[in-house]
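Table 4 source record.
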Amino acid sequence: MTQAIHNFSAGPCILPPSVLSQASQAVHDLDGMGLSLIEISHRSKAFVDIMEEARSLVRSELNLPGRYEVLFLQGGASLGFLTAAMNFIPEGGSMDYAVTGTWAKKALKEAKRIGGAQALSSSEETGFDRIPALPSSSAADFVHITTNNTIYGTQYGADPVIDTPMVADMSSDIFSRPVDIEKYACIYAGAQKNMGPAGTVLYIYDTERIGKTGRDIPSYLDLAVHADKDSMFNTPPVFAVYTSMLTLRWLKDNGGVEGARDRNAAKAACIYGEIDRNPLFNGFADPGSRSVMNATFTAADDAHTSAFLAACDEAGISGIKGHRSVGGFRASMYNALPLASVEVLVEVMREFERTRG
C-alpha cells in the first residue's frame, strides 16, 4: 500500500481530495458535456456559470456588502503589488506600507515605481520575526499590509485597529478566518496558497473608493475595466478559477471561514505546543506574532537538521524544509491540511527527541 503523504508545502498548497478528484474529472469531461474544462469557450454558459458561482461564493463566505466587487484575474499577487498601488494611490497622494517580510518589501518596491509609497513600520531589524505595531491612524490615503508572511511564519492575529482604510495582500491566509471587510478598500490574494492552483488572483475591492486616483491606468491594470467585463476582459484562467470554485464549495460545506478558523487554531496549538515543549527545537517567530498558516522552527543543534528532514521524509512528510531566509523547518498548515497530518509531524518530533535527546 502506498504511504499517505502529509503535504506541508508552502505553496502551491494542499487541496481537499474531493476538489482534486472533481477538478481532474473536469479536465477530461466537464459535467458530462463530452468536452474538457480547458477546451470549452470561456464565453460559454458552462464557464460563465462557473465564474459567477466562484464570485458569489466569495461574497457569501466573506459576507461582503453589496458595494464590494469580486474579480478573478491573472498575474498573481506579484502583479497585484503594482495593480493595487495604481488603482488606489491618488496622484499627489500616498500609501503607507507595513514591511513585515519579503513579500511586503516587494509590494513597497513596486508601489514606489508610481510614487507616493513609503514604509510605515518594519520588523526587518529583528529579521522579520514579528509583526510591528501599527499606529491608530496614518496621514496617508491608505495603509498596505501583508496579513501573513509565509517565509518567516508571522501573521496579524486579527484585523489591525487603524482609522485609515487598508489595502491587503492576503495571499496566504485568505478564507482562513473571518475578516472585517469594512476596514479594507482592497484585498488581493494569489490562489495557490490557500484557495486553489496557481494561475489566478482574487481581487475584492470597495467600489466607492476606486476610480479616484487621477492617473491614466493601462487597461489590463485597471480593476474597473475588468469589473465592467465580469472578470473576462481577456480569456480567464479557467482551470484555476474552476478549482478555486470547488475549494470554496468545500469551504462552505465544512463550516465556512468560522469552521476553518477553529480547525486552523487546533492545528496551530498542536504544532506550537510541541515546538515549545521539545528542547530539540526552537520556534522562529515571536510568540505574539506566530502564524496559524506557517509554523517556522529550527533545530536547537543545527547538526540535527538533515537528520530530522530525513525522519520526516521517512514518515511521508513533504514540504517541511524551511525557506533559506530562515533555514530549519516550516510547517504550512493551510485550510485543507487535516489535523491528523500535524499530529504525525508532532509524533516524529517526539520520536526524534527520544532517539536524539
